[in-house]
Here is the input.
Amino acid sequence: MRRFTPFILGSICLHAGMFALVAFSPEKWLLALAILFANHAAIGVAGLLPRSRLLGPNLVHLPDEAANRAEVALTFDDGPDPEVTPKVLEILGRHGVRATFFCIGERAAAHPEICREIVSSGHEIENHGQRHRNHLAFSGVAGWMREVGEGQKTIEAITGRRPEFYRALAGLRNPFLDPVLQKLGIRLASWTRRGYDTRCSDSEAVLSRLTKGLKAGDILLLHDGHGARSETGDPVVLEVLPRLLSELEKRNLKPVSLGTALRQRHADRARIMMFPDHDWIASRIPHKANMCLLDRVIGWNETQIFCRAKSHRFPDNPLRQEGMLGITTGIEYAAQAMAVHGALLAGNEESPAAGYLTSVRNVRWKRSRLDDLDGEIEVRAERLSGNELNILYSFGVSFGEEMLIEGRASVMLDASSAKLEKNS
Ligand SMILES: [Zn+2]
Here is the structure.
């Protein structure tokens, strides 16, 4: 279902109304023409105002959450430029700052290595169109589709990531752009303030345009391509950027990329998921009372998990026998790490399928007990092979550099519950 803004809907109705008027009262054609002319003038003006939202959704500042975190988005247009972009990256890197680069498709294709450097330095590349030509504001749907769609493909082919934002050339657009963006599933992003660093050679003036009235939540527009030069012949942006960054620091504003500002909420959740603590683990693995052995996850990916534990020291550890924690209880620690791994792979929201150890093989150990180790032990499990129901892990429990117990274990997931899930 296509969404139109009230302004566009009103314009469509106005056209229908004027055609009806002329059909019934042909002598009023001049009036109808004048009204339509005024309407088109309004649409034209709406398309010329970069920050207008009359033609469709348009990101002109960051959401409140980002502003509350004192974030300001840094964006650079018209690159990559083989001379300027690497220097911009160096300045950003020196300040530990991430930014968003709206690249032109043709330039990205000419300098893919710079694009890869932008991404590998932690910044984002978004779409500034394939060709960046001025007549775009007169394009129809097909013209916009070529410009924005090809830009998407070019950038994705180089970076492996599909851009989420399109920025219109100088903010210029017309009513045919928004349907194209909806179809491609990307958002229009403009800016709150810009320094006009493409035509102003006075870096003082550029800096003051960017910083005057600057507040949290603003999106700043600079250029690493097509930039003006100062009197000394240096690109203005390279004179402005370091001063802008220290000005932001002085005002306690945090420069970020657009993606960081908009995705922060998800990132917070991902962090919790990345390193679950004891409570998270306890709520997701099958265990008897007081039997959650692991304290936290220190790292994991698709195939491996690393956990830490200190419960081997606890006098009330339920695995103790005759006051001692035998070395083979290390297998129990490893089994819990495997269960946590399954829960993490299943996603934070779902509870994992119930599972149990079916066999343990090739077990080797170097000492007889765990409870006398003074400090945290590390528990590792690595998925070697398996399918939805049966998984083979290798595991190891270590203390510092010392391997305590290691081996292989098969985990059988509960077939009945897995089947039920599949059928529902
Ligand atoms: Zn541009």
